[in-house]
Protein backbone atom coordinates (compact mmCIF):
# COMPACT_ATOMS: atom_id res chain seq x y z
CA UNK A 1 0.00 0.00 0.00
CA UNK A 2 2.82 2.41 0.86
CA UNK A 3 4.59 1.71 -2.43
CA UNK A 4 1.37 2.21 -4.37
CA UNK A 5 0.68 5.51 -2.59
CA UNK A 6 4.19 6.67 -3.37
CA UNK A 7 3.70 5.97 -7.08
CA UNK A 8 0.44 7.93 -7.14
CA UNK A 9 2.00 10.81 -5.21
CA UNK A 10 4.94 11.04 -7.61
CA UNK A 11 2.68 11.23 -10.68
CA UNK A 12 0.93 14.47 -11.56
CA UNK A 13 -2.80 14.24 -10.89
CA UNK A 14 -4.93 16.04 -13.47
CA UNK A 15 -8.60 16.94 -13.18
CA UNK A 16 -10.68 17.12 -16.37
CA UNK A 17 -13.86 19.15 -15.90
CA UNK A 18 -15.72 19.79 -19.16
CA UNK A 19 -19.16 21.29 -19.59
CA UNK A 20 -19.54 19.41 -22.89
CA UNK A 21 -18.28 16.03 -24.03
CA UNK A 22 -16.55 14.65 -27.09
CA UNK A 23 -14.60 11.43 -26.71
CA UNK A 24 -11.92 12.59 -29.14
CA UNK A 25 -10.90 15.47 -26.88
CA UNK A 26 -10.57 13.07 -23.96
CA UNK A 27 -8.67 10.64 -26.16
CA UNK A 28 -6.12 13.34 -26.94
CA UNK A 29 -5.78 14.23 -23.26
CA UNK A 30 -5.40 10.55 -22.36
CA UNK A 31 -2.69 10.09 -25.00
CA UNK A 32 -0.64 12.92 -23.51
CA UNK A 33 -1.28 11.63 -19.98
CA UNK A 34 -0.04 8.17 -20.95
CA UNK A 35 3.12 9.59 -22.51
CA UNK A 36 3.90 11.67 -19.40
CA UNK A 37 2.77 9.31 -16.64
CA UNK A 38 -0.09 11.54 -15.51
CA UNK A 39 -2.87 10.29 -13.29
CA UNK A 40 -6.26 11.51 -14.56
CA UNK A 41 -9.20 12.15 -12.25
CA UNK A 42 -11.61 9.18 -12.18
CA UNK A 43 -14.42 11.72 -12.64
CA UNK A 44 -13.25 12.35 -16.20
CA UNK A 45 -16.54 11.40 -17.87
CA UNK A 46 -18.86 12.73 -15.15
CA UNK A 47 -19.22 16.41 -15.93
CA UNK A 48 -22.27 16.72 -13.68
CA UNK A 49 -20.51 15.39 -10.57
CA UNK A 50 -16.98 16.52 -9.74
CA UNK A 51 -16.05 16.52 -6.04
CA UNK A 52 -14.84 19.75 -4.49
CA UNK A 53 -11.40 19.56 -2.93
CA UNK A 54 -10.04 16.92 -5.35
CA UNK A 55 -6.25 16.97 -4.80
CA UNK A 56 -5.07 17.72 -8.32
CA UNK A 57 -1.93 19.39 -9.68
CA UNK A 58 -3.76 20.98 -12.59
CA UNK A 59 -7.01 20.99 -14.54
CA UNK A 60 -8.18 20.96 -18.14
CA UNK A 61 -11.57 22.60 -18.35
CA UNK A 62 -14.31 23.57 -20.75
CA UNK A 63 -16.10 26.50 -19.18
CA UNK A 64 -19.90 26.66 -19.34
CA UNK A 65 -23.07 27.26 -17.38
CA UNK A 66 -23.13 23.94 -15.54
CA UNK A 67 -19.54 23.85 -14.30
CA UNK A 68 -18.70 27.55 -14.42
CA UNK A 69 -18.65 28.18 -10.66
CA UNK A 70 -16.77 24.96 -10.00
CA UNK A 71 -14.09 25.79 -12.56
CA UNK A 72 -13.61 29.27 -11.09
CA UNK A 73 -13.25 27.74 -7.63
CA UNK A 74 -10.30 25.55 -8.66
CA UNK A 75 -7.11 26.93 -7.05
CA UNK A 76 -4.61 25.26 -9.37
CA UNK A 77 -3.09 25.74 -12.84
CA UNK A 78 -5.85 25.55 -15.46
CA UNK A 79 -6.14 25.46 -19.24
CA UNK A 80 -9.53 25.96 -20.86
CA UNK A 81 -10.75 24.76 -24.28
CA UNK A 82 -13.93 26.85 -24.61
CA UNK A 83 -14.52 30.31 -26.10
CA UNK A 84 -16.86 31.47 -23.32
CA UNK A 85 -16.08 34.60 -21.33
CA UNK A 86 -14.37 33.67 -18.05
CA UNK A 87 -13.98 36.01 -15.07
CA UNK A 88 -10.26 35.26 -14.74
CA UNK A 89 -7.22 34.90 -16.95
CA UNK A 90 -6.72 31.31 -18.10
CA UNK A 91 -4.51 30.00 -20.93
CA UNK A 92 -6.66 28.55 -23.71
CA UNK A 93 -6.43 26.04 -26.49
CA UNK A 94 -9.34 26.17 -28.94
CA UNK A 95 -10.23 25.18 -32.46
CA UNK A 96 -9.54 27.95 -34.99
CA UNK A 97 -13.11 29.08 -35.60
CA UNK A 98 -12.15 31.66 -38.21
CA UNK A 99 -10.29 29.01 -40.24
CA UNK A 100 -13.24 26.62 -39.84
CA UNK A 101 -15.64 29.20 -41.22
CA UNK A 102 -13.35 30.13 -44.11
CA UNK A 103 -13.05 26.47 -45.04
CA UNK A 104 -16.86 26.24 -45.07
CA UNK A 105 -17.11 29.30 -47.32
CA UNK A 106 -14.49 27.92 -49.73
CA UNK A 107 -16.26 24.55 -49.85
CA UNK A 108 -19.54 26.12 -50.94
CA UNK A 109 -17.97 28.66 -53.32
CA UNK A 110 -16.08 25.88 -55.10
CA UNK A 111 -19.44 24.22 -55.80
CA UNK A 112 -20.84 27.32 -57.46
CA UNK A 113 -23.36 28.42 -54.83
CA UNK A 114 -24.52 32.03 -54.92
CA UNK A 115 -26.85 32.15 -51.92
CA UNK A 116 -25.77 31.27 -48.40
CA UNK A 117 -27.24 30.94 -44.94
CA UNK A 118 -25.94 30.26 -41.46
CA UNK A 119 -28.00 28.17 -39.05
CA UNK A 120 -27.75 30.27 -35.90
CA UNK A 121 -28.35 29.23 -32.31
CA UNK A 122 -27.96 32.43 -30.32
CA UNK A 123 -27.35 30.78 -26.94
CA UNK A 124 -24.19 29.02 -28.18
CA UNK A 125 -21.17 31.36 -28.12
CA UNK A 126 -19.07 29.45 -30.64
CA UNK A 127 -22.00 29.37 -33.05
CA UNK A 128 -22.07 33.15 -33.21
CA UNK A 129 -18.32 33.39 -33.76
CA UNK A 130 -18.56 30.98 -36.68
CA UNK A 131 -21.44 32.89 -38.23
CA UNK A 132 -19.52 36.18 -38.21
CA UNK A 133 -16.41 34.57 -39.70
CA UNK A 134 -18.42 32.68 -42.35
CA UNK A 135 -20.15 35.82 -43.58
CA UNK A 136 -16.91 37.80 -43.50
CA UNK A 137 -15.14 35.20 -45.65
CA UNK A 138 -17.98 35.25 -48.19
CA UNK A 139 -18.02 39.05 -48.34
CA UNK A 140 -14.28 39.05 -48.97
CA UNK A 141 -14.91 36.63 -51.86
CA UNK A 142 -17.31 39.16 -53.41
CA UNK A 143 -20.63 37.74 -52.22
CA UNK A 144 -23.12 40.61 -51.71
CA UNK A 145 -24.80 41.05 -48.34
CA UNK A 146 -28.18 40.43 -50.02
CA UNK A 147 -27.10 36.82 -50.65
CA UNK A 148 -26.32 36.14 -46.97
CA UNK A 149 -29.12 34.88 -44.76
CA UNK A 150 -29.69 33.59 -41.23
CA UNK A 151 -31.71 30.54 -40.25
CA UNK A 152 -32.63 30.87 -36.59
CA UNK A 153 -32.97 27.97 -34.19
CA UNK A 154 -36.59 28.03 -32.95
CA UNK A 155 -37.20 29.28 -29.39
CA UNK A 156 -36.84 26.85 -26.50
CA UNK A 157 -40.58 26.66 -25.88
CA UNK A 158 -41.18 24.73 -29.11
CA UNK A 159 -37.92 22.79 -29.47
CA UNK A 160 -39.41 19.79 -27.65
CA UNK A 161 -42.35 19.72 -30.09
CA UNK A 162 -41.02 18.17 -33.30
CA UNK A 163 -43.92 19.25 -35.54
CA UNK A 164 -43.73 22.85 -34.32
CA UNK A 165 -39.94 22.80 -34.55
CA UNK A 166 -40.01 21.53 -38.14
CA UNK A 167 -42.72 23.99 -39.15
CA UNK A 168 -40.70 26.91 -37.78
CA UNK A 169 -37.61 25.91 -39.79
CA UNK A 170 -39.50 25.10 -42.99
CA UNK A 171 -41.25 28.45 -42.73
CA UNK A 172 -37.89 30.19 -42.79
CA UNK A 173 -36.56 28.04 -45.64
CA UNK A 174 -39.54 28.83 -47.84
CA UNK A 175 -38.62 32.52 -47.75
CA UNK A 176 -35.02 31.96 -48.85
CA UNK A 177 -33.64 31.62 -52.40
CA UNK A 178 -32.50 28.30 -53.80
CA UNK A 179 -30.17 26.61 -54.36
CA UNK A 180 -29.03 27.56 -50.87
CA UNK A 181 -25.80 26.62 -49.08
CA UNK A 182 -26.31 26.38 -45.31
CA UNK A 183 -23.42 26.29 -42.87
CA UNK A 184 -24.64 24.82 -39.58
CA UNK A 185 -22.18 25.80 -36.88
CA UNK A 186 -22.59 22.41 -35.18
CA UNK A 187 -23.26 18.88 -36.42
CA UNK A 188 -26.44 18.57 -34.36
CA UNK A 189 -27.92 21.61 -36.10
CA UNK A 190 -26.87 20.25 -39.48
CA UNK A 191 -28.50 16.93 -38.67
CA UNK A 192 -31.71 18.69 -37.67
CA UNK A 193 -31.78 20.66 -40.92
CA UNK A 194 -31.17 17.58 -43.08
CA UNK A 195 -33.99 15.79 -41.26
CA UNK A 196 -36.37 18.72 -41.70
CA UNK A 197 -35.59 19.05 -45.40
CA UNK A 198 -35.93 15.33 -46.06
CA UNK A 199 -39.31 15.15 -44.33
CA UNK A 200 -40.69 18.25 -46.02
CA UNK A 201 -39.69 17.36 -49.60
CA UNK A 202 -36.78 19.80 -49.91
CA UNK A 203 -33.95 18.13 -51.79
CA UNK A 204 -30.51 17.98 -50.16
CA UNK A 205 -28.06 19.03 -51.57
CA UNK A 206 -29.61 20.28 -54.82
CA UNK A 207 -32.03 22.77 -53.24
CA UNK A 208 -30.43 23.12 -49.80
CA UNK A 209 -26.87 21.96 -49.18
CA UNK A 210 -25.88 21.50 -45.54
CA UNK A 211 -22.44 21.51 -43.89
CA UNK A 212 -21.78 20.78 -40.21
CA UNK A 213 -18.79 21.06 -37.88
CA UNK A 214 -16.82 18.47 -35.84
CA UNK A 215 -17.46 15.41 -38.03
CA UNK A 216 -19.28 13.31 -35.42
CA UNK A 217 -19.32 10.21 -37.61
CA UNK A 218 -22.15 8.38 -35.85
CA UNK A 219 -24.38 11.40 -36.39
CA UNK A 220 -23.19 12.36 -39.88
CA UNK A 221 -23.33 8.88 -41.41
CA UNK A 222 -26.73 7.83 -40.07
CA UNK A 223 -28.96 10.57 -41.49
CA UNK A 224 -31.41 10.26 -44.40
CA UNK A 225 -28.81 12.23 -46.36
CA UNK A 226 -25.31 11.81 -44.86
CA UNK A 227 -23.97 15.11 -43.54
CA UNK A 228 -20.77 16.73 -44.78
CA UNK A 229 -18.78 18.11 -41.88
CA UNK A 230 -15.51 19.81 -41.01
CA UNK A 231 -12.91 17.71 -39.20
CA UNK A 232 -11.75 20.03 -36.40
CA UNK A 233 -8.97 17.73 -35.10
CA UNK A 234 -10.44 17.33 -31.64
CA UNK A 235 -7.87 14.66 -30.71
CA UNK A 236 -5.14 17.23 -31.32
CA UNK A 237 -7.11 19.82 -29.36
CA UNK A 238 -7.12 17.57 -26.29
CA UNK A 239 -3.45 16.66 -26.69
CA UNK A 240 -2.35 20.28 -27.09
CA UNK A 241 -4.49 21.38 -24.12
CA UNK A 242 -2.65 18.82 -21.98
CA UNK A 243 0.69 19.98 -23.36
CA UNK A 244 -0.14 23.60 -22.58
CA UNK A 245 -1.15 22.65 -19.02
CA UNK A 246 2.18 20.84 -18.63
CA UNK A 247 3.96 24.05 -19.62
CA UNK A 248 1.87 26.06 -17.17
CA UNK A 249 2.50 23.68 -14.25
CA UNK A 250 6.24 23.78 -14.99
CA UNK A 251 6.15 27.61 -15.17
CA UNK A 252 7.26 27.67 -18.82
CA UNK A 253 4.30 29.91 -19.67
CA UNK A 254 2.20 32.39 -17.68
CA UNK A 255 -1.56 32.66 -17.27
CA UNK A 256 -1.46 35.46 -19.84
CA UNK A 257 -0.14 33.17 -22.61
CA UNK A 258 -1.81 33.75 -25.97
CA UNK A 259 -4.47 31.21 -26.97
CA UNK A 260 -3.31 28.31 -29.12
CA UNK A 261 -5.53 27.75 -32.15
CA UNK A 262 -5.96 24.31 -33.72
CA UNK A 263 -6.57 24.60 -37.47
CA UNK A 264 -9.21 22.32 -39.06
CA UNK A 265 -8.06 19.34 -41.09
CA UNK A 266 -10.55 19.23 -43.96
CA UNK A 267 -14.15 19.04 -45.08
CA UNK A 268 -15.29 15.43 -44.95
CA UNK A 269 -17.58 15.49 -47.97
CA UNK A 270 -20.75 13.44 -47.87
CA UNK A 271 -24.01 13.68 -49.81
CA UNK A 272 -25.38 16.77 -48.04
CA UNK A 273 -23.02 18.98 -50.06
CA UNK A 274 -22.12 16.67 -52.94
CA UNK A 275 -24.60 14.31 -54.52
CA UNK A 276 -21.70 12.34 -56.04
CA UNK A 277 -20.34 11.47 -52.58
CA UNK A 278 -21.41 7.82 -52.71
CA UNK A 279 -19.18 4.76 -52.53
CA UNK A 280 -20.73 2.67 -55.36
CA UNK A 281 -18.57 3.37 -58.47
CA UNK A 282 -21.28 2.43 -60.98
CA UNK A 283 -23.85 4.63 -59.21
CA UNK A 284 -21.39 7.52 -59.25
CA UNK A 285 -20.90 6.93 -62.98
CA UNK A 286 -24.67 6.81 -63.56
CA UNK A 287 -25.22 9.97 -61.54
CA UNK A 288 -22.51 11.82 -63.43
CA UNK A 289 -24.01 10.79 -66.79
CA UNK A 290 -27.47 11.81 -65.60
CA UNK A 291 -26.31 15.23 -64.39
CA UNK A 292 -24.37 15.88 -67.59
CA UNK A 293 -27.16 14.75 -69.95
CA UNK A 294 -30.49 15.38 -68.19
CA UNK A 295 -31.26 18.19 -70.67
CA UNK A 296 -31.32 15.60 -73.47
CA UNK A 297 -34.12 13.04 -74.03
CA UNK A 298 -32.16 10.27 -72.25
CA UNK A 299 -33.82 7.09 -70.97
CA UNK A 300 -33.08 4.75 -68.10
CA UNK A 301 -31.66 2.27 -70.63
CA UNK A 302 -29.16 4.94 -71.72
CA UNK A 303 -28.07 5.56 -68.13
CA UNK A 304 -27.74 1.85 -67.31
CA UNK A 305 -25.73 1.18 -70.47
CA UNK A 306 -23.31 4.01 -69.67
CA UNK A 307 -22.84 2.76 -66.09
CA UNK A 308 -22.34 -0.82 -67.25
CA UNK A 309 -25.32 -2.15 -65.29
CA UNK A 310 -28.61 -3.84 -66.00
CA UNK A 311 -31.64 -1.60 -65.52
CA UNK A 312 -32.83 -3.74 -62.60
CA UNK A 313 -29.37 -3.80 -61.00
CA UNK A 314 -29.07 -0.05 -61.36
CA UNK A 315 -32.44 0.47 -59.69
CA UNK A 316 -31.47 -1.69 -56.70
CA UNK A 317 -28.10 0.09 -56.34
CA UNK A 318 -29.73 3.53 -56.49
CA UNK A 319 -32.28 2.64 -53.84
CA UNK A 320 -29.52 1.28 -51.59
CA UNK A 321 -27.18 4.27 -52.04
CA UNK A 322 -29.61 7.15 -52.42
CA UNK A 323 -32.94 5.88 -51.18
CA UNK A 324 -34.62 6.58 -54.54
CA UNK A 325 -34.82 5.03 -58.01
CA UNK A 326 -32.96 6.26 -61.11
CA UNK A 327 -36.27 7.53 -62.55
CA UNK A 328 -36.94 9.61 -59.45
CA UNK A 329 -33.35 10.89 -59.51
CA UNK A 330 -33.61 11.94 -63.17
CA UNK A 331 -36.90 13.70 -62.48
CA UNK A 332 -35.42 15.40 -59.41
CA UNK A 333 -32.36 16.66 -61.30
CA UNK A 334 -34.53 18.06 -64.10
CA UNK A 335 -36.86 19.78 -61.64
CA UNK A 336 -34.02 21.21 -59.58
CA UNK A 337 -32.44 22.63 -62.73
CA UNK A 338 -35.77 24.15 -63.71
CA UNK A 339 -36.13 25.69 -60.23
CA UNK A 340 -32.65 27.16 -60.50
CA UNK A 341 -33.35 28.70 -63.91
CA UNK A 342 -36.72 30.07 -62.77
CA UNK A 343 -35.16 31.87 -59.80
CA UNK A 344 -31.88 32.96 -61.37
CA UNK A 345 -32.70 33.76 -65.03
CA UNK A 346 -35.35 35.55 -67.07
CA UNK A 347 -35.71 32.71 -69.59
CA UNK A 348 -39.23 31.88 -70.71
CA UNK A 349 -40.88 28.79 -69.22
CA UNK A 350 -40.96 27.16 -72.68
CA UNK A 351 -37.19 27.63 -73.02
CA UNK A 352 -36.52 26.32 -69.51
CA UNK A 353 -38.61 23.24 -70.23
CA UNK A 354 -36.55 22.37 -73.30
CA UNK A 355 -33.21 23.04 -71.55
CA UNK A 356 -34.21 20.78 -68.65
CA UNK A 357 -35.13 17.78 -70.76
CA UNK A 358 -38.91 18.26 -71.05
CA UNK A 359 -40.46 17.97 -74.47
CA UNK A 360 -42.74 20.94 -73.83
CA UNK A 361 -43.83 23.42 -71.14
CA UNK A 362 -46.96 21.41 -70.33
CA UNK A 363 -44.87 18.46 -69.18
CA UNK A 364 -42.77 20.78 -67.02
CA UNK A 365 -45.88 22.37 -65.53
CA UNK A 366 -47.36 18.95 -64.72
CA UNK A 367 -44.15 17.86 -62.96
CA UNK A 368 -43.91 21.18 -61.13
CA UNK A 369 -47.48 21.07 -59.84
CA UNK A 370 -47.00 17.51 -58.64
CA UNK A 371 -43.77 18.39 -56.82
CA UNK A 372 -44.46 21.88 -55.45
CA UNK A 373 -48.23 22.44 -55.82
CA UNK A 374 -47.28 25.55 -57.82
CA UNK A 375 -46.96 26.32 -61.49
CA UNK A 376 -43.48 27.30 -62.77
CA UNK A 377 -44.59 30.95 -63.06
CA UNK A 378 -46.01 30.97 -59.52
CA UNK A 379 -42.78 29.42 -58.21
CA UNK A 380 -40.70 32.12 -59.92
CA UNK A 381 -42.92 34.89 -58.57
CA UNK A 382 -42.84 33.50 -55.01
CA UNK A 383 -39.06 33.21 -54.71
CA UNK A 384 -38.34 36.50 -56.41
CA UNK A 385 -40.78 38.22 -54.07
CA UNK A 386 -38.95 36.68 -51.08
CA UNK A 387 -35.76 38.38 -52.32
CA UNK A 388 -37.51 41.73 -52.79
CA UNK A 389 -37.19 41.64 -56.57
In the CATH classification, which architecture of the largest domain applies?
3-Layer(aba) Sandwich
Strand line-up across the major sheet: 7-6-8-9-10-12
Unreliable spans are 1-8
**SSE sequence, one letter per element:** HEHEEHEEHEHEHHEHEHEHEEHHHHHHH
Q: Look at the structure and give the mean pLDDT.
A: 89
Strand content: 5-15%
Overall form: elongated
Largest sheet: 6 strands, mixed
- In the residues, how many domains can be counted? 3
CATH-derived topology of the largest domain: Rossmann fold
Cα Rg = 25 Å
Distance from N terminus to C terminus (CA atoms, Å) equals: 79 Å
| DSSP helical segment count | 17
Features:
389 residues; Arc Repressor Mutant, subunit A; Rossmann fold; 6-stranded mixed β-sheet; 12 strands; disordered N terminus; alpha/beta; 3 domains
Give an overview in words.
The chain has 389 residues and is an alpha/beta fold. The chain has three domains: 2-93 and 235-255, Rossmann fold (3-Layer(aba) Sandwich); 97-234, Rossmann fold, CATH 3.40.50; 281-386, Homeodomain-like (Arc Repressor Mutant, subunit A). The chain has 17 helices and twelve strands. It has helices at 2-10, 23-35, 68-73, 97-110, 125-140, 156-159, 162-173, 187-200, 217-221, 234-249, 281-293, 300-307, 311-322, 326-344, 349-355, 361-372, 376-386, and strands at 13-18, 39-40, 58-62, 78-80, 93-95, 116-120, 148-152, 180-184, 208-213, 228-231, 260-262, 266-268. Strands 7-6-8-9-10-12 form a six-stranded mixed beta sheet, with helices on both faces. Strands 2-1-3-4 form a four-stranded parallel beta sheet, covered by helices on one side. α2 (23-35) packs across α10, α4 packs across α5 (125-140) and α14 packs across α17. The longest helix is centred in the C-terminal third of the chain and has 19 residues, at 326-344. It is elongated. Mean pLDDT is 89; it is low at 1-8.
Amino acid sequence: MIACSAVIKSAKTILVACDWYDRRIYRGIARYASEHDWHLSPYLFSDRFVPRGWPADGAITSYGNVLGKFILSLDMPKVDISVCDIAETIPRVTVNNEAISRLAAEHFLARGFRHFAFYSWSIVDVNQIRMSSFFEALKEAGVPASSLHILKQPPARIMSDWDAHMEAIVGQLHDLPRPLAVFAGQDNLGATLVEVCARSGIHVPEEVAVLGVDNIEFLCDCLMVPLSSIDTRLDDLGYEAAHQLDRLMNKKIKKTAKPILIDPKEVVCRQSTDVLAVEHPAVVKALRFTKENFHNPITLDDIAAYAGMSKRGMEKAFVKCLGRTPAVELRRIRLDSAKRMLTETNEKVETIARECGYSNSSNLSFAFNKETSMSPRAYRKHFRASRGE
